[in-house]
Amino acid sequence: MPTFNEDRKIVDPPLNPGDAPFFDAAAQGRLVLKTCRACGRAHHYPRTMCPFCWSTDVHWTDAKGEGEIYTFSVARRGPGAPYCIAYVTLDEGPTVMTNIVGTDLDTVRIGQRVQVVFRHSENGTAVPMFTPIVP
Fold first, then answer.
1. Domain 20-132, what fold?
2. Low-confidence ranges of the chain (pLDDT < 50)
3. Which of 86, 111, 127, 132 is the most exposed place for a label (fewest CB within 10 A)?
4. Residues 6+ apart with CB under 8 A from 74
């Protein structure tokens, strides 16, 4: 029953210009996405223009913080192992690369429903990760 290594060091995420609102919201336990006012679609990574219609009328919106695993890989050897890296498709549409935490890694499945949780990096930055939703 290998579970995510809770002692695994989480490297500080690189911060790009304009990322501060994303990480400020994460520090408050909120997942936010950029959403286009012109076409109504959410996107991730945050950008100053919509990747779908090219509008610059984009703003931050709160995400539900739930989605489903699109694909995943479990690392069982090496520094910090075991851990699970996955792509999660959020209910709002975007697919994000993340870690699956707080579960037996042998039970992780494609299509599994997950919800956001926040873990802290070395310098204390809240990083969104996901854990299975228990029915």
1. OB fold (Dihydrolipoamide Acetyltransferase, E2P) (2.40.50)
2. none
3. 111
4. 2, 82, 83, 84, 105, 108
